[in-house]
Amino acid sequence: MQLKDKTILITGGSSGIGLESIKHFLTEGMKVIICGRDGLKLQLAKSKFPSIATISCDITKEEDVSLMHQLVMSSGGIDILYHNAGVVSVNSLVEKTAITIATNEMETNYLSAVRLTSLFLPELAKRKEAAFVFTTSAVAYLPAAFIPTYSASKAALHSYVLSLRYQLRELYKNISVIELIPPTVDTEATKIFTSAKVSAERVAKDVVNGLKNNRSTIHVSIAKSFSYLHRFFSSLAFSIVNPKNPIR
Ligand SMILES: NC(=O)c1ccc[n+]([C@@H]2O[C@H](COP(=O)([O-])OP(=O)(O)OC[C@H]3O[C@@H](n4cnc5c(N)ncnc54)[C@H](OP(=O)(O)O)[C@@H]3O)[C@@H](O)[C@H]2O)c1
């Protein structure tokens, strides 16, 4: 896919992987729009990258999303929707809070992606070359039991991506449906995790290369080894992801 002059909307582009990706997309000559909930974080991103557009939007709120859609459409629309916003919580399934945490993770990580995809699909359908990028995770395939409801939300998103790709394949040949599968990445979200982490820069570079090379699945670093290990040695893979010390 040719990236120059394309416009990308990055959900949750105000920190972590999304924020890091901005400069890589700008370097390719793209127009970048980001959204997030925290106005201060959006302002900081704008001061770092003055050419981007920022939109205050909670993707779990239908009215926010509808307003964002109107703003994006009135400023020329987009070619690529990069579903990056996500939340993760370390939690215990025996606590009563499990349902509250699971609801928030499912709404942010899964249902919001479904809503945004339906809303922007007619726009992407009109473009010569367009793409949806969905950020799942290595734990979509192999749950990390200390982030159980997050793992389940990413498994749901992975399953959705497979069906969306299948359904769009004949209808809209111009739209690529891409799954981005990072392992643990060094961001604010994982600061209490002690396992090995890849940099957000590595993820951003892989996303750009994946888009340029028309990849439908972008495994970052060891995420690919884990998916093979899981396929052939699932118990061993589960015990590697879930060792005795639960904070990984
Ligand atoms: N870090 C990892 O190890 C890792 C591994 C695999 C996959 N991932 C996935 O990669 C993506 C980015 O993760 P990250 O580590 O970069 O996280 P991060 O640093 O915590 O950034 C998350 C971004 O999402 C935004 N966000 C969260 N909830 C939102 C909502 N309801 N509406 C709009 N924006 C929202 C945040 O901004 P506001 O808080 O201001 O809204 C922030 O900009 C996520 O989908 C995550 O699940 C991360």
Structure described in brief:
The chain is globular. It has helices at residues 16-27, 39-48, 62-74, 98-126, 148-171, 200-212, 223-232, 234-241, and strands at 7-11, 31-36, 53-56, 80-83, 130-135, 175-181, 217-219. The chain is α/β, with parallel strands linked by helices.
Describe the protein:
By secondary structure, the chain is α/β, with parallel strands linked by helices. The chain has one domain (7-241): NAD(P)-binding Rossmann-like Domain (Rossmann fold, 3-Layer(aba) Sandwich). It is 48% helix and 14% strand. It has a seven-stranded parallel sheet, with helices on both faces. Strand 4, helix 4 (98-126) and strand 5 (130-135) form a beta-alpha-beta unit. Helix 1 crosses helix 6 and helix 3 packs parallel to helix 4. The longest helix has 29 residues, at 98-126. It starts with 6 loop residues before the first strand and ends in a 7-residue tail after the last helix. NADP nicotinamide-adenine-dinucleotide phosphate binds at residues 11-12, 14-18, 35-38, 41, 57-60, 84-88, 108, 135, 137, 182, 184-185, 187-190.
Give the key terms.
single chain; 248 residues; alpha/beta; Rossmann fold; 7-stranded parallel sheet; 8 helices; binds NADP nicotinamide-adenine-dinucleotide phosphate
